[in-house]
């Protein structure tokens, strides 16, 4: 028995020692490299890795004393991952912030206030709306990385094949949603009669996300929250909002000009880029993304508005935030990195690489060949004249999730009034927790 | 000429007695031996128990504490008045009620057909087991492509043979059934192995006797194999039900609880509550209730197995 016991103890000690050794080794390694370089942990959006590498290469080359641990997370998991990481005892040092979530993160103390760290002059080149979106209760909590806009993309070949006139392609010249529906009816084609159209009339890139759907309701004069952001009852389920939601639901159900259940933006783009739809309501990055489909002949018309309604287009973008709990010896490196990512060079580079609209004027001047395209002119016009930011509330994450659930249900055939009444009840419950 | 037998050495004569004494000691340990035996047992169990405590019991305790938020049962009260939660309970039960019996039936059938030796049989057995070795995420993504309502393989096949196209995961009626089918496809091969090993334990003589009496293979399966597999059957059914009550990955990857909440199982609702709606007490309360239900099921499983063994002794 003694032998058994001593063997067991020896094994245990061996296990403990072998487990501890690499840790000690790692500690030594970390200490050695800490003297040479500051390691920044960065949670970033899961854009294609080759593009991210290209974007970061100049920074890494110019700053051999900073190491970047980039953790790129796919869009569908990004916000949940950030929730877990930010609430943990070891949050990332720097992280990407979706514009409307700035208030939510700032409210919960996750973001480092930047007022005393960033000079006023540094913000001069950013669009004022983008800087405003980085503030919560007047305090700057992030730096603008990108802005955004959306418009109506169309497949020129499909329009020509069915002899349908192309939508206008001039800045500010937009067709009505009623007209879009008419076009979609004509261009939803089921040639073999199996009940499954070979060509769909209209796709919505983010088909159940408030970002691209709120402007429909706003075009009819609705707004999702009260002006002070404290209540949604009577706003998200107002008559105008329900009317817009009904129009949206009908696209999928009564009219059947849009396919139900294609919820992932890359899949939607794949459908459109491979000629399976005539039109797509999509954001600005599609100008670059769609150009990757060989022989794909597409154009862009300004974001539609309802007949008699207001022209309203989505906007808002990504921000760069620094953790409020970053170790003080890392703060300089983090600020340096945040400044680089939001610089003229990096903004322009990212616009060229991925196609996001820069949030600063000088980046547009840096790439005249890219932005002199008529499609960019259409979008830039709307960014200046019709863009409507999403509501500012510390409960944005919950608000968006509940509204997304409602849009999703409406897409699958739920009654818009019921779905939005339920959304109002749930959103108000979430908002109450922040009072 | 034979040598006279050498008298046995005293130590050799004592050997059987010493052996007996050692055996007696092991069967009826003295106080000192018992202590060192306990120590050894504890030393062997300690690493496993430490991991269990750190990664299972501690989080479970934290979850229970979070759900009670300062000793109040508010989160639980809200849950039972919450239609979303109650619908989620129904969805989870419906999912388990579809997936579990189907998995057990398919795996038992596979085991009955594939028991015995032979190259083809072992090849097919391996093929059936393969899906369970693939990660659930890979399975879900692959099936997502197959079941795509607009351009998926499944609808192409249906169209080719002249059957109407289906919405599959985009249909509030079919989505849960599709997820249950996916679970059967992935798990049947795994549980089949349990049945196969259970069948190995059935004495050959029983089958021989039945064959002598003129029983057909089907009669053998129905009257001998299945009844003697009762303990395994109970174990597989309950374990599989527990697994299905905890389903998360396919829902997260394929349907995100939709369409219209038709696949919003409890674990996904708990996940959404925590990380989308930032309501930790609600999420913890759901997890705690699921934990309690799973605990009750496991208890039932133990009882079933004991009953099965009791039956053997009679």
Structure description:
The complex is a heterodimer of chains A (435) and B (314). Chain A is of the alpha/beta class and 435 residues long. Chain A has 2 domains: 37-148 and 316-387, Periplasmic binding protein-like II (D-Maltodextrin-Binding Protein, domain 2); 150-314 and 395-432, Periplasmic binding protein-like II (D-Maltodextrin-Binding Protein, domain 2). Chain A contains 18 helices and 15 strands. In chain A, β1 (38-45), α2 (49-62) and β2 form a beta-alpha-beta unit. The radius of gyration of chain A is 25 Å and the shape is globular. Residues 11-34 of chain A have low confidence and may be disordered. By secondary structure, chain B is mainly alpha-helical. Chain B has a single domain (74-313), classed as Orthogonal Bundle (MetI-like fold), CATH 1.10.3720.10. Helix content of chain B is 76%, strand content 0%. Chain B is built from 14 helices and no strands. In chain B, α6 (136-146) runs parallel beside α12 (249-255), α11 packs antiparallel against α14 (280-313) and α13 (266-275) packs antiparallel against α14. The longest helix of chain B has 38 residues, at 31-68. Chain B is flat. The termini of chain B are far apart. In chain B, 30% of the residues are buried.
Provide the residue-averaged pLDDT of chain A.
89
In total, the number of strands of chain A is 15
Figure out the total of helices of chain B. Answer: 14
Helix percent band of chain B? over 70%
- How many domains in all of chain A? 2
Question: What is the β-strand count of chain B?
Answer: 0
Mean pLDDT of chain B: 86
Report low-confidence residues of chain A grouped into runs of 5 or more: 11-34
Quick one: CATH superfamily of the largest domain in chain A? Periplasmic binding protein-like II
If you consult CATH, what is the topology of the largest domain in chain A?
A: D-Maltodextrin-Binding Protein, domain 2
> Could you say which overall geometry of chain B the principal axes of the C-alpha atoms support?
flat
Strand content of chain A: 5-15%
Distance between the termini of chain A: 65 Å
Helix-strand pattern of chain B: HHHHHHHHHHHHHH
The CATH homologous superfamily of chain B corresponds to MetI-like
Please summarize the sheet with the most strands of chain B: none
Strand content bin of chain B:
under 5%
Low-confidence stretches of chain B: 310-314
> What best-fitting shape of chain A do the alpha-carbon axes yield?
globular
Largest sheet of chain A: 5 strands, mixed
